[in-house]
Predict the 3D structure of the following.
Amino acid sequence: MTDQHPAEDPTLGPQVGRAPQTARPASGPVTTPAASAASFSARPRRVTTTASDGRRILGPVDAAQVPRWAGTGTFARLPRLDEVEHADVVVAGMPWDTGVSYRPGARFGANHVRESSRLLRPFNPAQSHSPFAGVQVADAGDIIGNPFDIEEALAAMQAGARELTEGGTRLVTIGGDHTIALPNLRNLAERHGKIALLHFDAHLDTWDTYFGAEYTHGTPFRRAFEEDLLDTEALCHVGTRGPLYGTEDLDDDARFGFGIVSSADIYRLGVDRVVQILRERIGDRPLYVSLDIDVLDPAHAPGTGTPEAGGATSREILEILRGLRGLNLVGAEVVEVAPAYDHAELTGIAAAHIVYEFITLLSLGAGAQAGSPAYGEADAVYGDRPGRVRNDVARIVPASGAAASATPAADAAATATAEQKEV
């Protein structure tokens, strides 16, 4: 019995499979199992759109042509950076975790999140937007840092981020541990000046040193403050909780300019009030969002190095991120995904959806600034469907900065809590 190669289809790329010939029956012709040429393609068909400037935009692999579990593992099955002439938004891994202080393994996080992103689809109904249409989004692969030399690694990661963001490209990074925030902030400060920061995390990450080491996943924002990278009028932790070493941790943090919206605040105040607080604090400044996956409760994200009980739900965090629509987002990162501790891919799936929301915000970009529906107005896809129960309470009105709460008492309580925290 011999093997028979399928015919080459030049429109699909090189053929990489073989169709085995069946044994010849006692009488009759030889038969070969039917197979689509696409089954053997190393270059699968992609969803394509056209940008406003006429560019052809390559989107994700077409799920009607290639099942979601098949093919190479770029984020959301997007094209690689080397497949496109220019990318407006790029996703890149920083698989480095030499700065961890407890459970290791975040170095494997980027590829885990990529694998968990296979089920993402090209239309985001929560934002009434197709993030991969009209702007070119691509996966740039990984930025490599020396795992045995921290300062050399930080320099290499900053250089990689600098190269990827040339020409105005926006970067979403998947870590890696939280140390990678420092090279990302260094790169952005070179381009934009001092950066506003929303830091989603169970921990402050403004400590000084661990065992005398200045560069760890618990110190990046103290180093960023010392290097004058941050706009101290526009800094806020979100989702903070858990034990501290002492009150001096909070004293230092306040001295650096950080406000705090704790995990308990998210629960007590609600998403809309939290969104208002964050929007008022950030304004129109260039904003970086750094999200440690341990901001989520371990029930939603067990796969991380330093889990803390009492965290936010994935729904709460996704809704808060959607509420940042229209702000001047210049980059974002998800860090501390450690797949060795991830059960049923819960952490990877949550992180993939968070990256998807970042890409959505960045792809809205100029459109949002030019008058796209703002937060609270972009709910039409679900809201106009027959039978949907709507909440008619006003959400946020970004144009005036005003907000409406469910009750005056709730609004007064929220204001008092916010003022007490000096947010």
In short: The radius of gyration is 24 Å. Residues 346-369 form the longest helix (24 residues). Residues 1-41, 366-380, 384-423 have pLDDT under 50 and may be disordered. The first strand starts at residue 3 and ends at 4.
